[in-house]
Amino acid sequence: MQRSDDEVETCREQTVRRMEVSPEAVQSAFGDMVLEQPMLDQLGTAVVSGNAIFLHGPSGTGKTTLAEALWRLFQRDPIWVPHAIVVDGQIITVYDPQIHHATEGPTPPEADRRWMLCQRPRVIVGGELTIEMLDLQFNPLSKFYVAPVQVKANNGLLIVDDFGRQRVRPEELLNRWVVPLDRRIDFLTLAGGRKLEVPFDVLVVFATNLNPATLADEAFLRRIQTKIKVDNIGREQFHEITRRICENVGLAYDHAVVDHLADVIATELRQPLRACYPRDIVQQVVWGARYHRQVAALTREAVEQACRSYFLAS
User: For residue 17, which of 200, 141, 237, 262 has the smallest C-alpha distance?
Assistant: First the structure.
């Protein structure tokens, strides 16, 4: 077990603010996604800054997928994670095998066994998030504390998915993190009321399909240096995404059929083209073929039937 000041020093040495990220690395990390260059540049710049990111836009545009793909940029350099830290005789466990994945290969023989050499962590919280999850949790049986999610995510990525739909109210969460996002430190409470200062060295990504202006005030939004709108897509992107999905599932891509599909969605159903539609419609085609014990094929009839099953009738 490490003393808390040892953990603080190591955490600062491994800070997310000094990660080296190049345009080539960003291109590689998002190579399986169809993104325009300005979006890639925004994402790369945000990671270099180490500051929080707000991904916002309509549902189904790929915000969560983008947020999760950011972690590929964090896998390049390993970090040291303590098994636990000690404060005034109180034990706080930090290492979590569900979050901290040990690097491949043997640990250096001179390494301190109280630490684990791991990939930078990625923690995803969604609707289950409560305000209690952001503070120390005391286990009365084992008599030790468990570190909260933001401490386990130190030196890594913390994704707050579907922000605004958590069990904790948005303003309560934002008020809790105003100081940590600004000063890079957090305060946790031990039994008896003592406050413990810990690093808040996390790249936080808020992903939401709600209007950010309705979720946070100007003072908080100012602390989120990068705000990226992930919007609906155009026809060219729609075709390319569908082509890649077809390739992945073994379907022959037909440009004319996909053009017809885009017409049905945009004209007949009066829906915008969204990044999730190619995957979801192709899945419907594959499922339908399997049900009828047929070989799946991307035909006009198949995509029309898929749309009838997928979209709400007007």
Answer: 200
The beta strand positions in 133-267, using DSSP E, are 137-139, 144-146, 156-160, 185-189, 195-199, 202-208, 226-229
Model confidence, pTM: 0.87
Residues of the chain within CATH 3.40.50.300 domain(s) are 2-229
Q: Which CATH class is domain 2-229?
A: alpha beta
Q: What is the identity of the amino acid at 226?
A: T
> Using one digit for the tens of pLDDT, what is the confidence trace for 90-147?
899 999 999 999 887 666 666 677 888 999 999 999 888 888 889 998 888 888 899 9
CB 26 within 8 A of CB 44: yes
Q: Where in the chain is the domain with CATH 1.10.8?
A: 235-310
Evaluated on CA atoms 188, 175, 55, 215, the torsion sign reads positive
Please state, in angstroms and rounded to a whole number, the distance separating the CA atoms of residues 281 and 55.
Answer: 25
State how far the Cα of 107 lies from the Cα of 113, in Å rounded to an integer.
9
pLDDT digits (tens, 9 = 90+) for 166-212: 777 888 888 888 889 889 999 998 877 788 889 999 999 999 988 88
State which fold the 235-310 domain adopts.
Answer: Helicase, Ruva Protein; domain 3 (1.10.8)
